[in-house]
Fold:
Amino acid sequence: MHKAGLSITITLIYNLVVLKCMDIPFEPVIFDVKLNVHLILEYAAFFSGFRYYVYLKKRTHDPISSTNRLSIVIGAIFGAFLGSRIFGFLEHPFFSSDLDGLLMVLNTKTIMGGLFGGLLGVELAKKVIGEKKSSGDVFTFPIILGILIGRIGCFFAGINEFTYGNKTDFFLAMDLGDGLPRHPIALYEIIFLILLWVFLRYLQNSRTLPNGWLFQYFMILYFTFRFMIEFLKPNTFYIFGLSSIQYLCILCWIYYHKTIRKSLYAN
Structure:
């Protein structure tokens, strides 16, 4: 564990040094065509996450039948689509009656809404088909992988993607495309996701967790990280100084309050 941790730390430090020297937004031109790296990595995130899910499902015992699993996946997809759009709109409210404005609203999305909407979609699908078993563990690492790849694209997009931070004198501050030193929020999240992956793997290999708890730990820890990191973003705050994403995080904590309580008071 010590060698693995040291290797990860050295790799992160090296990558930080390299990234500090890059021009952001990163928009390479190949054959006179400017590549949209963010869009390419967004598609790569979906593809890689799905393929990793298929890989894990074939190599682990799934207590849920294939038919029910398909229904659950469909519920997750529809729930994630609706949730990502609804909370994406609440994060950046925009009203317009023309076609361009409508398309902008439809294209505004957030992974946080996608995760929580997907969770609700799964629970609804399970209720419809009568499935009682927990179903989230097999999704945990594919989701982390997908978010990780997607956040690399967000980082390369700089200020063209609303994942940049406030102006700061912090030593990790970077010019993300507007000439100002800002918190590289996407980079912070990439580092967090790598550490979260290592931590959850450690839990998975060192303890016998109740079915479903691995996914619940992921949701609780990721939403807690996002709650804290939102204070570093130039958000439009609503009630009591909190953004819509932070209220979604609080909603997630309420949803998983039993797991949080059991974890805090476990002997």
